[in-house]
Amino acid sequence: MAIIITDECINCGACEPECPNTAIYEGADDWRYADGTDLEGDIVLTTGKSVNAEDAQEPISDEFYYIVPDKCTECKGFHEEPQCAAVCPVDCCVPDDNHVETEKELLEKQAFMHHD
Predict the structure, then answer these.
(1) How large is the C-alpha radius of gyration of the chain?
(2) 68-87 in b/e burial notation, b at 16+ Cβ within 10 A?
(3) What is the pLDDT of residues 40-65, one digit of tens each?
(4) 44: Cβ–Cβ under 8 A, 6 or more apart, which residues?
(5) What is the structure's pLDDT at 79?
(6) Is 60:24 a contact under the CB 8 Å cutoff?
(7) What gap in Å lies between CA 101 and CA 30, rounded to an integer?
(8) Per-residue confidence (pLDDT) for residue 1, from 0 to 100
(9) Side-chain half-sphere of 86: how many Cα atoms within 13 Å?
(10) 1-25 burial, b if ≥16 CB within 10 A, otherwise e?
């Protein structure tokens, strides 16, 4: 399951540098699959969607920080717990019920993005 930032976000930015997948962006900022990952060029995501990793994607939120579900692995493969939730001063980084994934799926996504 991905993490989502709720509208209680105070835009402090504490979460953004903690994300090992660079899945967190400031409101209104474009994002790319290539940001902070090993992805480049034309790729097929684990969901089956075809994209170019370097193409700018539309912001998910214009008002506050947001997490890209396709890049969020709940820090699986890096940390024991989601780092955004651990540092958030207002507890607005919570599980996203609209993007439920198993631990196996999250680890596969992490391995896909980081070819270590």
Answers:
(1) 13
(2) bbbbbbbbbbeeeebbbbee
(3) 999 999 889 999 999 999 999 999 99
(4) 50
(5) 96
(6) no
(7) 25
(8) 72
(9) 10
(10) bbbbbeeebeeeebbbebbbbbbbb
